[in-house]
Automatic annotation (TrEMBL):
Belongs to the IolE/MocC family. Keywords: Cobalt, Lyase, Manganese. Its EC number is 4.2.1.44. Pfam families: AP_endonuc_2 (PF01261). The gene is iolE. One of its GO terms (molecular function) is myo-inosose-2 dehydratase activity. This is Inosose dehydratase. It comes from the Bacteria. It comes from Enterococcus quebecensis. PANTHER family: HYDROXYPYRUVATE ISOMERASE, INOSOSE DEHYDRATASE. Its cofactor is glutathione; Co(2+); Mn(2+). Pathway: Polyol metabolism; myo-inositol degradation into acetyl-CoA; acetyl-CoA from myo-inositol: step 2/7. It catalyses: scyllo-inosose = 3D-3,5/4-trihydroxycyclohexane-1,2-dione + H2O.
Length: 297
């Protein structure tokens, strides 16, 4: 495999958290992207402090050798009229298209508990009805058609605290949707946190995987989140997530599966942590060194 086909980026959520803006409020946008580049990354996703005008954002990134890999989009296909999601998606898609991104990260937030500070993550996990599944699949395919017309692809982000989290739910979404219209984001941290087998899922859906998040898990914290019925956000604040090389996941066999599959695209390091406890630059460097050791990238 030609490793030049894989680009390595990092998400800004380690510096400033979109769901909990108080985490990293002291860190500026310029500090964030400068430290990304200094740590050896060539790509970024989009955070809440990034300029929303492509003409303003591009110079900041260009001078640091950074490209936009993608950005998160919250869909509400199961709980709101499709037209509301489409309108917001179109604006989001057009922004990413202007920034040169090829994939759009989409996650269904209808019924989601991931942003609820007091709702137990595992005990109260949402479960979609058959009607929810149909509305989700149909809506995603329509969004996928819009993206395809721009030469882009939507990648669905399975996520803790949502209706698409488990192996069975990921499988069902893939079965219900057209591979030409809906692709998959592969997130190591969310799979392991949920109790899934990431290698099995990667191998099963490798032809659909068009975007990857490398995220690690602190096993003791993750177990405590479940046994003490903590919420997703409290789990984040407690340090359930960390960067590759600092947690319980062995990325070597995961990399072997990725390499064997011929994957081409972005691998994004992502670990939402409290930056006052986990210095973002130090952890970015730690992850960069670890990934180089196992991948030579």
């Amino acid at each position: 495999m030609n490793q030049q086909e894989i680009c390595l980026g990092i998400a800004p959520i380690a510096w400033t958290n979109d769901d909990m803006p108080e985490l990293g409020k002291e860190n500026s946008f310029e500090q964030c992207i400068s430290e990304m580049a200094l740590a050896g990354y060539t790509g970024t996703e989009i955070g809440n402090k990034y300029p929303k005008d492509p003409e303003k954002l591009k110079p900041y990134l260009d001078i640091r050798g950074l490209s936009v890999a993608s950005a998160w989009f919250s869909a509400f296909l199961t709980t709101k009229p499709y037209e509301e999601t489409e309108q917001a998606f179109t604006d989001h898609m057009n922004f990413l298209h202007q920034m040169g991104a090829k994939v759009i990260v989409v996650s269904e937030q209808g019924h989601s508990i991931q942003g609820q500070m007091e709702t137990p993550l595992f005990k109260d996990k949402p479960v979609f009805s058959d009607e929810d599944w149909q509305r989700l699949a149909t809506g995603l395919e329509r969004l996928g058609e819009l993206a395809n017309a721009k030469g882009m692809t939507i990648v669905y982000h399975h996520h803790m605290g949502t209706g698409v989290q488990t192996t069975e739910e990921i499988d069902r979404l893939m079965e219900l949707t057209d591979p030409e219209k809906v692709s998959l984001l592969f997130d190591t941290g969310h799979l392991v946190f949920s109790g899934e087998d990431p290698i099995s899922i990667y191998q099963k859906h490798q032809k659909r995987i068009k975007h990857i998040h490398f995220k690690d898990i602190r096993e003791d914290v993750a177990k405590q989140v479940k046994t003490t019925e903590q919420s997703f956000l409290n789990g984040v604040k407690a340090g359930a997530f960390t960067v590759p090389g600092d947690g319980m996941i062995d990325f070597s066999p995961i990399w072997e599966a990725i390499e064997k599959s011929g994957y081409s695209g972005w691998i994004i390091v992502e670990a939402e942590q409290d930056p006052s406890k986990a210095n973002p630059f130090e952890y970015a460097v730690k992850a960069r060194k670890y990934i180089h050791e196992i991948t030579s990238i």
